[in-house]
Amino acid sequence: MVGLPDGTSTASIQVKTTWSALRYRGKKGNKQPDHYEWEIGERYAKLNQPGLFFAFVDLKRAGTELPDVFIVPSEVIYNQFKRVLETKKLVRVRWHSRVETVDKYKNRWDLLDDYLVGEGKNQNKKEDI
C-alpha cells in the first residue's frame, strides 16, 4: 500500500516481477522488441478497483541495468482478461502486452501520485459536508 503522509488517501499495489520481460521478434540480426510478458494469476486478473494498481517489474538482465517498473491501473488488466475469464478457467494467466501499448506506463509513478492527490481532495470534500 501507498498513501499520502496525512493518511487521507491510499492505494494498493500488486507487484509482479520477472527477469527479462521484454520479448523480441524477428530473424537473427533483425530482432526487434515486440512485447512484454508477466505472470499474473487468475485471481488478480479478475480485480478491478479504482485504487488498485499493478507494478510490473522488468528486472532485465541481472546486474546489467536498472529495472523498469510499469504502473498499470487494475482496470487495464481486468479489461484485457474479463471476456476469457468469464467463459473458462485458466491455469496460467500471463499478461502479454505489445511494447507500444505498455510503454505508456513505463516508470509512471505520477499515475499513483495523481490518484492519491485526487482521492485526498475527494476525502476533504466529504468531510466538509
Defining key terms:
129 residues, 3-stranded antiparallel beta sheet, 4 helices, globular
User: What is the number of helical segments per DSSP (H or I, 4+ residues)?
Assistant: 4
- Residues in helix, %: 25-40%
What spatial order of strands do you see in the largest sheet?
A: 1-2-5-6
- Say how many strands there are: 7
Q: Any idea what the shape is?
A: globular
* Amino-to-carboxy terminus distance: 28 Å
Query: What amount of the residues lies in strands?
Result: 25-35%
The total number of structural domains is 1
The averaged pLDDT comes out at 86
The radius of gyration computed from the alpha-carbon positions, rounded to a whole number of angstroms, is 17 Å
**Which structural class do you get from the secondary structure elements?**
alpha+beta
Unreliable segments of 5+ consecutive residues? none
Largest sheet: 4 strands, mixed
Which series of helices and strands comes N to C?
EEEEHEEHEHH
Could you characterize the architecture of this molecule?
By secondary structure, the protein is of the alpha+beta class. The chain has one domain. The chain is 32% helix and 32% strand. The longest helix is centred in the C-terminal third of the chain and has 19 residues. The model has no long low-confidence stretch (mean pLDDT 86).
